[in-house]
Design a protein that fits this description.
This protein has helices at 2-19, 39-124, 127-145, 159-167, 176-186; strands at residues 23-31, 190-199. By secondary structure, it is mostly helical. Helix 2 packs antiparallel against helix 3, helix 2 crosses helix 4 and helix 2 (39-124) packs antiparallel against helix 5. The longest helix is centred in the middle third of the chain and has 86 residues, at 39-124. Keywords: Coiled coil.
Length: 202
């Protein structure tokens, strides 16, 4: 019973550690100035913030509208380059197949000779056959290091992938919140950062 309790306790500790510690976010708490005469100033801050947000949103949507045109232009350039590289790749592939055929033919010839002299060396202990066997073994080893490599096939461009990458460059963050915070403080307000637990809270 004691062992079972100990096991369950250890299991509980393991599960807690596996979940990780609590996660927090910082949120600002805004305290208005005590002087009510600062209300127009605060209102002006709010208007500046809203105008900034509207301009930022308009800029963001303009960026998104521009993305399709830029992506299409970039895609056409990359497609042209891809087709040129594909033609080169096909030529290189044909050359590779010719080289590979010659390589395999040479390898077979050396391997056949090697097995021939190996057999004589083992059966008759012929000095020349054994020497020739070792020589062929080294030649085969060197030849294997010279095996032709297949050329790398070029990657065809993807329009949607280009659009996705360009879309990531469009931002909705124009620093409007920082502008508001600076304005709010200049009006006499106070900003207090507060930490809030959002996950694995106890």
């Amino acid at each position: 019973m004691l062992r079972k309790g100990l096991f369950l306790g250890l299991l509980g500790l393991f599960l807690l550690s596996a979940c990780g510690g609590p996660e927090y976010i910082i949120k600002n708490h805004y305290i208005l100035p005590a002087d009510t005469s600062s209300s127009p100033c605060i209102k002006d801050c709010q208007e500046k913030f809203e105008n900034c947000q509207k301009a930022c949103e308009a800029q963001y949507h303009a960026c998104l509208s521009d993305v399709r045109q830029k992506a299409t232009s970039l895609y056409e350039k990359e497609l042209k380059k891809y087709r040129e590289e594909l033609n080169i790749y096909q030529d290189e592939t044909n050359l590779f197949q010719q080289k590979l055929a010659l390589y395999l033919e040479k390898l077979k010839e050396l391997s056949d000779d090697y097995h021939f002299f190996e057999k004589i060396c083992q059966e008759k202990q012929d000095k020349y056959a054994c020497s020739r066997q070792e020589e062929l073994k080294k030649k085969i080893s060197r030849l294997k290091q010279e095996k032709p490599s297949h050329p790398l096939k070029p990657v065809e461009p993807d329009l949607e992938d280009i659009i996705k990458k360009l879309t990531a460059t469009c931002s909705r963050d124009c620093g409007c919140q920082k502008i508001y915070d600076h304005c709010f403080i200049s009006c006499g307000g106070t900003i207090i950062p507060e930490k809030f637990c959002v996950e694995n809270c106890q």
